[in-house]
Write a structure and sequence with these properties.
By secondary structure, the chain is mainly alpha-helical. It is built from twelve helices and no strands. It has one domain.
């Protein structure tokens, strides 16, 4: 309250109006507040986690692209050192592929695909929360509006006469506050969900392309020459 008293009149008026708007929405406003906080937290977390440099480090992408489809064992070893201990999605998938280079190609591809599915699930973590918020926020807003309307009509129904219809109009407008808030939460959440889902899909396609290129080059080298590294040495690098 001391901070509000020291604030400029315009800020103070806006704060009081926002607080009054929230209180008039009733109990369901608190549930919508929880939805908004959760949605914002997920959006911030996914925004940081799905940065391109975090999911697909440029050094690993460049290492794969620089591999030559000839006897270039040193480049493979260099790439293995780059991905060792790397916690990015691309790094873990590449590490799986390099660890299993002594396996037949179909089995290695299957292992890489399994790892890739795990990484995609990790990238999509939290998006289901946004999807839930998109679904329930408008419904909570609508439920709050209906509850408010029931209260308004019940109050005026108990009165013997209604002298001022503006009171009903004011009550209805206050009851609709929760609907406004519900839609205001659902719309940004839907935008974020669509954006992050498309981003994960795009990066998964790019990762698949890079891994296919890596395995094609490595197994082409194995086919033309001796194995790139013996299993014990490759395991030590990774």
């Amino acid at each position: 309250m001391i901070l509000l008293a020291d604030s400029p009149p315009s800020i103070l008026n806006f704060t009081l109006q926002a607080l009054n708007f929230f209180i008039q929405g009733g109990l369901f406003m608190w549930l919508l507040l929880v939805c908004s906080v959760v949605s914002m937290a997920v959006m911030l977390a996914r925004g940081f986690a799905l940065r391109r440099t975090t999911v697909m480090p440029p050094a690993i992408s460049k290492g794969i692209e620089d591999l030559q489809p000839v006897d270039d064992a040193e480049a493979v070893v260099k790439l293995a050192r780059i991905v060792r201990g790397d916690q990015s999605a691309l790094g873990r998938i590449v590490q799986t592929g390099l660890q299993n280079l002594q396996w037949p190609k179909p089995e290695n591809i299957q292992a890489v695909e399994t790892r890739a599915r795990h990484e995609i699930v990790r990238l999509e973590a939290g998006l289901v929360v946004l999807e839930v918020v998109v679904g329930i926020a408008p419904l909570l807003g609508l439920l709050g509006a209906v509850s408010g309307l029931v209260t308004v009509f019940a109050t005026y129904g108990d009165s013997s006469s209604i002298s001022d219809p503006r009171g009903i109009a004011k009550g209805i407008s206050e009851a609709l506050n929760s609907t406004i808030v519900g839609l205001a939460i659902a719309i940004p959440s839907l935008i974020a969900y669509s954006y992050f889902s498309k981003k994960v899909e795009t990066m998964s396609v790019e990762i698949e392309s890079l891994i296919s290129e890596l395995l094609a080059k490595c197994y082409y080298q194995k086919k033309r020459s001796q194995p790139l590294r013996n299993p014990a040495e490759m395991e030590e690098i990774l």
